[in-house]
Amino acid sequence: MRPRAGCRTKRRRRRRRLKQTKIGSLGTKMSNRVVCREASHAGSWYSASGSQLNAQLEGWLSKAESTIRPARAIIAPHAGYTYCGACAAHAYKQVDPSVTRRVFILGPSHHVPLSRCALSPAEIYRTPLYDLRIDHKVYADLWKTGLFERMSLQTDEDEHSIEMHLPYTAKAMESHKDEFSIVPVLVGALSESKEQEYGKLLSKYLADPSNLFIISSDFCHWGQRFRYTYYDESQGEIYRSIEHLDKMGMGIIEQLDPMSFTNYLKKYRNTICGRHPIGVLLNAVAELRKSGVEMNFSFLNYAQSSECRNWQDSSVSYAAGALIAH
């Protein structure tokens, strides 16, 4: 469920802001422009105050248990923190900062039509906690494949699916904050073959224990405003039907079978907004399984923004889970 948008005037002012850094050598100075992506949803979707945000994240994390750490990948929601912050903590609690040196963040494109995946033009991602730097080497290697587009900075700052994971990433990694980089990837409406292609490409990174994959996704968006009102009367109240539908999909994701997940989506049309990032992850796991790598996925928490009881209601579902390699 989406909180109220922030002050648009302020966001426009922040648009394409460039940070100037000086590089000096033997008394000679030159200016090098570093492109920064601003924390454009801070102050509306989550707190813009570093101290307040830190306290909130600590509160949610303190109530979650570390059960399947260290995670190689997590699935976590990207709604406003008042709605999904507590749920997301159950995924981030499985992150081990002592082994993680690179964090891939795969988020769906909500606003821009995209049939492939896209990379950011930024070099620094701002958060109210501290700045995160993009891994230039991995970005260069991905770009060389010819499979990626370059999104504009405006597209990047308008999109929330990646940004909502930045504060949690910063918090989870704070004990090693100078020792890791991020690899944000905006995922378009991929075909099945494209999901397989990107999964195969990214599988070598998923195989590396020093890499963490964050898969950004909410689950069912139910209600007339989402144009989705699937209801199974045998489950009782509407919110129970939604939960049953979501948990059916979650169980299929836990099987780590991309084709079964695709068939589930085709049958029920569940409005899982991160279905393509999830599909890429499942295909990456399938690729590694061919070479004997054992992996398991478990969901740890499920929540809904509200309990739908009539046809005028609406809700968004959230799930948090983690993938481990043996």
From TrEMBL:
<dbReference type="Pfam" id="PF01875">
    <property type="entry name" value="Memo"/>
</dbReference>
<dbReference type="InterPro" id="IPR002737">
    <property type="entry name" value="MEMO1_fam"/>
</dbReference>
<comment type="similarity">
    <text>Belongs to the MEMO1 family.</text>
</comment>
<protein>
    <recommendedName>
        <fullName>Protein MEMO1</fullName>
    </recommendedName>
</protein>
